[in-house]
Amino acid sequence: MGRWSVLLLEAGGDEIPLTDVPLAVPYVIGTDYNWGYTTEPQDGSCLGFEGARCPWPKGKAVGGTSVINFMVYTRGFPRDYDLWEEAGHHGWGFESVLPYFKKYEDVRVPSLRESPFYSRGGYLRVERPKWRSPLAVAFLEAGRALGYPAGDGEGLTAPGFSYVLATTKRGARYSAAKAFLRPVTRRKNLSVAKRARVTKILIDPETLRAYGVEFVKHRRYRVVKALKEVILSAGAINSPQLLMLSGVGPRRHLEELGIPVLRDSPVGENLQDHLSMAGLVFFVNESVAVTGRTLLNPRYLVDYLVDGGGPLALPGGAEAVAFLESGTWDAGRHPDVELVFGPGGLTSGGGTTFRRAVSRLRPKSRGFIRLKSKNPFRWPLIYSNSFDHPDDLRIMVGAIRMAIRIASTDPYRRYNSSLLTTPFPMCRHHEFGTDEYWGCTCRVLTTNLNHQAGTCAMGSVLDSELRVQGVAGLRVVDASAIPVLPASHTNAVVYMMAEKAADMIKSYWLPYANSSFN
Predict the structure, then answer these.
(1) What percent of the chain clears pLDDT 90, i.e. is strictly above it?
(2) Which positions fall inside the Glucose-methanol-choline oxidoreductase N-terminal domain (predicted)?
C-alpha cells in the first residue's frame, strides 16, 4: 500500500495559535478561516439578521471546519445508525459503526476508562475541560432534580445531562489536521497542496469515469490526474457545488446554467441542519466569570498556557449538555432535543448571566443548494428552509419551555436565577412567554449548530460505499453523505465515516496492489 500515492488539495492554509484557543471560536469565525457563507433570504427564518440571511460558518483550512467548530464531542445514539441500516444503507448500523468510532478515539476521561463504548490510543484526543463554573454543576443537579440521568452513561452519547466532552488536548483545539494528518506528513507517498482551490472534477463524458481534478493555485489553473479514485471531502456546501460544476446534478438546473449534464442526480437536495435558538439569557446573583473580557484576563491566560485550564479551554464557551426526547420529555433512547449550557449571555452583565441554547436534533425540514452560476468562484445559493416543517417549530417551543423550567429548579434558586424578559423587538406584537412569542423568537433569532449535511446523501446520490452513483472512480466522504442527521454534533460522525471509507477503499483496491494498475 505504500506505493499508493495520495495528493491532498486544500483551499485554505495552516492553523495559527488563535485557532487553538477553544473560547476564541467567535473571533476565529470572523477571519479568513471561515468561507463566510450565508443563506438566501426566506420568510420563515433568520428574520433578525441583516438581509434575513443567516451566517453559516464553514472552515477554510487544513483540517476544514474542525479548525473553527465548537469542539463538542458527541456521537449520536444507536437508533440513529440502525435507522440508516433499515433504510437500506448496508453496513451502517450501530454494531457496524461503533468499531470505527473506537478506532480513532483517545478518550482521556477517567469515568469512561472502563467503558466498552469508548477507547484509548487512537489519533483523536477527547477530554473534559478542567475548569467548571458553579452554574454548570447546578445544571446537572437540576437534571437530577427533574428525574433525569446525569453524568456519563453507556452508549454512543449519554442521554440526560452531562458535562461536555471536547476534541481538545491539554485544553487546546485538536483539529482533524493535528489528529490525523500531522502524524503521517512525513510519508513519501503523501503530498499536501495548500491554498489550492479545486474548481472542477474531471469526468470522461463517454466512460463516465472521474480521472482527475482542475484546481487553482497561485492564480494559475492546473490539472492533476488520478489513476484510482478522486475522493471529494469538501463538505455539505462545497461538495455538491463541485459535483454540479462538473456535470453531476439536477438536469434542469445544470441545463439552465449551460453546464453539460453527465449524470442527472439529486445533488444539493436533502439539506439538513440542527436548528437552534440561543437567545435564552438568565440573570444570577454572582459572577460566572465568562464574559467578552475573559480572553484578556491575565490570570485565565496563565491558567490556559500552564496546564490547559481555566475558562479559555471551554469549547466555544459550552460547559454541559442535555439530550432529551420531546413529547414525554424523558431522556429516551433517541433524543430529538439538545440543551447546551454556557456561563455567559447576549449581555455582558459583568459576568452575571448565563445562556442556554436550544437545538432541534432530528429536524424534518429540508433545504437545498443550487449554483449561482457556472463560475466556480461564485458562492452557491443556500436555501435552508429552516422551520419549514411545523413540527420543528413546535418542538423548539417545547424545548424552550423545558429550558426555562430547568432554570427554575432548586439548584438555580440559590443563585436567584431569572429569565431576561426584555422582548425581542420583532416579536413585541406577541405577549411575552406565549407559544406565539417563542415561535417568533425562533424565526427571528434563528441559529444552528452548523451541522449541515445530506446534500450528497447515501441512497440518492451515493451508494452505501460512498461512491457517486453512475460515475466510476469518484467518492464523497464528508457530512454531505449523511442520509439523515443523527442526534449528534457531526464532527465525530464524519470522522467515523472517514475511517469506514478508508477500509472500503483499501478493501476494493487491495486485490490490485501487485498488478500493473497501481
Answers:
(1) 82
(2) 59-82, 235-249
**Long-range CB contacts (< 8 A, 24+ apart) of 407-413?**
407/142, 407/282, 407/356, 409/141, 409/142, 409/145, 409/146, 410/142, 410/145, 411/137, 411/138, 411/139, 411/141, 411/142, 411/145, 412/135, 412/138, 412/142, 412/282, 412/284
Q: What is the pLDDT of residue 2?
A: 61
d(CA 438, CA 402): 12
Cα pseudo-dihedral 315, 321, 325, 329, rounded to 10: -150
Tell me the C-alpha distance between 399 and 397, whole Å: 5
pTM over 0.85? The answer is yes
Binding residues for FAD: 65, 69-72, 198
Contact, 15 vs 67, CB < 8 A? yes
Tell me whether residue 274 is one of the annotated catalytic residues: no
Closest among 380, 33, 381, 375 to 216, alpha carbons compared: 375
Query: If you search the block for the grid coordinates 488563535, which residue do you land on?
Result: 18
Contact 324, 150 (CB under 8 A): no
pLDDT at 13 over 70: yes
Residue set of the binding site: 65, 69-72, 198
* pLDDT reading at 349 higher than 50: no
Q: Minimal CA–CA distance to 153: which of 115, 182, 123? A: 115
What pLDDT, on the 0 to 100 scale, is given for residue 188? 93
Active site (annotated) includes residue 89: no
Burial class (CB in 10 A: 0-12, 13-18, 19+), 217: middle
